[in-house]
Specification:
With 195 residues, the chain is α+β, with helices and mostly antiparallel strands. 24% of the residues lie in helices and 37% in strands.
Length: 195
């Protein structure tokens, strides 16, 4: 039911913009006030869509069923790489978490898709929302090939987020920057888990 309401809200927001005149050759004849009104309407539509995604992400976090699909990964000392979101992610499903890195190289890596996939059990999950609406998540992941603390920060009014994975046995922290989606709406491909 929640999914249906969410999709109905997104569809309503998207359809609201259907009646707006698209810029054509006659757009040069528009007055400044008309252009400003059109820009305001476009910004309002985008803000409503961002708000709907934010609400869906908050609900997924409460249900402990979300995926942060990363489009950028940052390593220690500021090195970073732009990556493919469907193979680079941090996910939580109940008490199980997965952290996966995969790069577009000729090397298949331990997970078969150019990187590493580790999973484990979650403990110490703590979710807090500050006065501005920013959501902060902290958890520990303990598994065969991972022992790390993970902190995730999602900005208010948007489902954009950053997750920092800090291993307990070394200082090789990795930050994932991307977008949080409910697990049911995520499109990730999980590689072979490292044991």
């Amino acid at each position: 039911m929640k999914k249906i309401l969410f999709f109905a809200a997104v569809l309503l927001v998207l359809c609201a913009g259907c009646g707006v005149n698209s810029p054509t050759s006659g757009s040069q004849n528009m007055t400044r006030a008309e252009r400003d009104a059109q820009r305001k309407e476009q910004k309002a539509k985008e803000a409503a869509e961002d708000r709907a995604w934010y609400e869906a992400a908050v609900q997924a976090i409460k249900e402990r069923s979300f995926v942060l699909e990363a489009d950028r990964v940052e390593f220690k000392r500021g090195r970073f790489a732009y990556v493919t979101p469907n193979t680079n992610f941090v996910s939580l499903d109940g008490n199980k978490a997965v952290v996966q890195l995969a790069f577009n190289t000729g090397y298949s890596g331990p997970n078969g898709i150019g990187g590493i996939t580790v999973d484990g059990n979650v403990s110490g999950l703590d979710v807090k929302t500050d006065k501005k609406g920013n959501v902060n998540i902290k958890m520990m992941i303990q598994g065969t090939a991972i022992s790390a603390s993970v902190s995730i920060r999602m900005s208010a009014g948007s489902n954009k987020a950053t997750a920092t994975v800090s291993p307990n046995f070394n200082s090789n922290r990795v930050s994932f920057s991307g977008t949080i989606y409910p697990t049911s709406q995520s499109n990730v491909f999980k590689g072979r888990t490292l044991y």
